[in-house]
Amino acid sequence: MNTDHPQAKTEDLRPEFNASSGCGEDVREKWLGAVLKLRPDLHFEYRQQGESQFVVVEDTVRSKFFQIGTSEFKFIASLDGRRSAREIASLIGEKDGTILSDEQVVAICQWLLNSNLVFGDQVDNTKRLEIQAAARGRQQLMGYLNPISFKLPLFNPNKVLSRLQPFTGWLFSKWFVVAWLILASVAMRDLWTNWSSVESSSFGILAEGRWLWLLLVWVALKVIHEAAHGLACRKFGGEVPEAGILMLLFTPMAYVNVTSSWRFSQRWQRIAVAGAGMYVELFVAMLALVFWARLDAGILRDISFNIFIMGSVTTILFNANPLMRFDGYYIMSDMLGIPNLYPKGTRGTGEQVKRLLFGTPVSPNICNAA
User: Fold this and answer.
1) How far apart are CA 287 and CA 183, in angstroms?
2) Helical (H) or strand (E) element with 202
3) 261: DSSP letter
4) Per residue in 78-109, pLDDT tens?
């Protein structure tokens, strides 16, 4: 799942409604008096995580997901296209004591409009959508021209994955987990007893003449890795509308779009989708190690060793690394219950550095999201 979702999986979740700096009184009054209407095609779902409760918003048209607090949702759900934002905030405050400040109301309205989740009486939404579509088109074009990082969608894998599902359900069964653990113990024993051979074989893995085998093994493993993500997503009822190639630092990587996994109310299901690629790829790597330890010298033994190295070492170093925005990052983010972990951490670190060096105050986050 190297960047499987075009990052919408977390980028759009739990928005932080930061008050706009330098917002004048006239502008604020305009937003407070705005009459907004929530789009009727949005899907909302209450979720509980520990003691925290929040709402996941799905934009089914654009396959985007947002996560908001219950207080914000009460306000957002009341936008009916008849009453102003100020009136609605006042009414919900009187009804159940949910208090939103003027700054919060303005920030929420701005976010809703910028995210194209509402229609407004003071905004030509058709023109706004056209402008944003053109902007996204330009960004996509610039992405294609970026030699360091760009994404190339190739096809919709949904039909292929659906046909494979009846034959691959065992991959996520309890007995296969048991088989995985048994194989892991055998592989670790073989690794321990053959460590000196592993070291000597590692030195020759990049020898001339082995590059083609390495490339073929790498491609096959990445196809298996991404297929596992897609199959796991489909197993739990999600859609996989896109698969392709991501170029990152001049290195080609496969990806599948499993953003729809955010429809899953169970956190373990989302974690299972994020970890499925490593789970299956490590099984293949361990199986290859067991074969390698029992084969005589030759091409099959060399290929088995290549599969073991490419499917274990590279997977653990990159995909499992929570400091990189690959599988391990999304698993950790879900386990901690902190969507947008990377941008939040980056922004928080930057603000603290500016506070220490220049005395700049930290920007207030007025979102009450759980």
Assistant:
1) 7
2) helix 195-203
3) G
4) 999 899 999 999 998 888 888 888 888 988 98
Q: DSSP secondary structure string, 59-111?
A: ETTTTEEEEEEHHHHHHHHT-BSSS-HHHHHHHHHHHH-----HHHHHHHHHH
The reported pTM is 0.76
Show the tokens assigned to 232: 């796991």
Given a contact cutoff of 8 angstroms between Cβ atoms, the answer to whether 236 and 267 are in contact is no
Average pLDDT score over residue span 212-228:
91
For residues 193 and 290, is the Cβ–Cβ distance under 8 A? no
Backbone torsion region of residue 101, taken as left when φ is above 0, otherwise alpha when ψ lies between -120 and 50, otherwise beta: beta
Cα gap 64→8, rounded to integer Å: 6
Are β-strands 52-59 and 42-49 bridged in parallel, bridged antiparallel, or unpaired? antiparallel
Query: In the chain, pLDDT over 70 holds for what percent of residues?
Result: 76
Which CA distances in Å does 12 have to 25, 267, 357?
29, 17, 30
Residues in the chain: 370
Give the Cα separation of 22 and 106 in Å (integer): 13
**Residue 276 near residue 228, CB atoms below 8 Å:** yes
Apex 72 CA angle, 95 and 18, nearest 5: 135
Q: How many CB atoms lie within 10 A of CB 75?
A: 22
φ/ψ of 209, rounded to 5, equals 100, -15
Hunting for tokens 């494979």 — which residue is that? 164
Other C-beta atoms closer than 10 Å to the C-beta of 223 total 12
Say what the alpha-carbon torsion angle 233, 234, 240, 243 is, to the nearest 10 degrees: 80
